[in-house]
Amino acid sequence: MGSSLADLFDRAVAVADLLVERRETVAVAESSAGGLLSAALLSVPGASAYYVGGTVSYSRSSASALLGGRPEERGDGLRGATEQFAEWLALSIASSLGADWGVAETGVAGPDANRHGVPPGTSWICVVGPGGLVGTRQLHRGSGVRLANMVAFAAAGLSLLQRNLQA
User: Fold this and answer.
1) What Å distances lie between residue 26 and 52, 56, 144, CA to CA?
2) Longest C-alpha distance within the chain, in Å?
């Protein structure tokens, strides 16, 4: 997936149009995308009609502090850069901010693997909707190019959200 910042904006416009049409809102929790997913959504004029808020939680401790609760207390070994953590982030941000939709991203931008051995260029994306969990996606870029990975992770989050809004 070769995405650019211009591609991000185009994807954000498509998502914004769908959210406005549906009169629904979104909240974002991201880590390795570093705020690019939120920035793309906020770059669309009229974002206050659909964007409730978001957070960049770059560690488990910040996710716990910002989203309430401690994921490690769930007793299931929850850790970053996993499908389960992405689900927890998406559900937590949507619930915490009262949004119709929650989208979350967690991964390893690079250039190196994380402390658990997850290779750079790997990300989990999760989207929850009005009825709960609607989809997850894992992205493997096989690259340690940090900025390219961050843009690709944000683009994947917007794409998954768009696909579920259109369903």
Assistant:
1) 6, 15, 30
2) 43
Domain architecture of the chain: domains with CATH: 5-166 (3.90.950.20)
Give the DSSP letter of residue 54: E
Cα separation, 87 vs 105, in Å, equals 9
Q: How far apart are the C-alpha atoms of 18 and 26, rounded to whole Å? A: 11
Report yes or no on whether pTM surpasses 0.85.
yes
Q: Which of 9, 79, 4 has the alpha carbon at shortest distance from 38? A: 9
- Kindly give the confidence (pLDDT) of every residue in the chain, 167 residues in length, as a single tens digit, with 9 standing for 90 and above: 467 889 999 999 999 999 999 999 999 999 999 999 999 999 999 999 999 999 998 776 776 676 665 444 444 556 788 999 899 999 999 999 999 999 999 999 999 999 999 999 999 999 999 998 889 999 999 999 999 999 999 999 999 999 999 99
**Which residues have C-beta within 8 Å of that of residue 77, sequence separation ≥ 6?**
none
